[in-house]
Amino acid sequence: MKFKAVLVTILVLILLPAVLARSDEQRRPILSARVPFESRPDHYIVKKMINGNTLLLTNGEKVRLIGVETPKVKISEAGFDWSIVLSTQKITRFDDMAKSFAELQIDGEAVRLEYDAAYAPSGHQTASGETLAYVYRVSDDFCLNEALIERGYGILSKSAGNYRLKNAFAASESRAIRFRRGVWQELFNVTKKTEGPVPLHGTFF
Question: pLDDT at position 84, please?
Fold first, then answer.
């Protein structure tokens, strides 16, 4: 009897780790069965910023930020030619600042895209095929579109139509103008050196 008891104890000690390991394995999710993150609807990874208001996703899709215009040498969608009031060097610097700020916030990050019914007729795309969207960082719902305007790195686009967040973005721009953030500080300095007003759609006071 004593021998049998010892034998049973030995068998239990040998088999128990294997049983527990199998049980633990069953509780663990199968990695190959997980849905790849980027295949989930409206969630993507940012590969890089192309410029101050356009980004590239790892799936190859280009996304243009709704409602945001960053300084360019060419005629701006914001309603005036930046080269009238700023040197080419300063224009480039502000676009680089917008790009750098955006890179710091979302490069390599998971983002959620939100679309606007105002652009449904065009398939939510620009004429050059870029997707028009609001870009939110998944981790904390940070909105890149609004942040660029709030910090003065970008301005409200006048030609973008009546999109859903236009009023909210206008309020952000008013604060940027009031506190002379980013490009608004430079434009404010220009107005003090010129006889006529700079053709902006906002006010400095």
Answer: 61
Entry pTM = 0.70
Whether 29 shows a pLDDT value over 50: the answer reads no
Listed range (46-55, 84-93, 152-161, 194-203) with the worst mean pLDDT: 194-203
Q: HEC string of the chain?
A: CHHHHHHHHHHHHHHHHHHHHHHHHHHCCCHHHCCCHHHCCCEEEEEEEEECCEEEECCCCEEEECCEECCCCCECCCCCEHHHHCCHHHHHHHHHHHHHHHHHHHCCCEEEEECCHHHHHHCCECCCCCEEEEEEECCCCCEHHHHHHHCCCCEECCCCCCCCCHHHHHHHHHHHHHCCCCHHHHHHHHHCCCCCCCCCCCCCC
Q: How far apart are CA 62 and CA 11, in angstroms?
A: 62
Query: Which residue type does 121 have?
Result: P
* The two three-digit tokens of residue 155, written as one number: 């301005």
Measured distance CA(191)–CA(20) in Å, rounded: 76
- CA–CA dist 122, 140 (Å, integer): 30
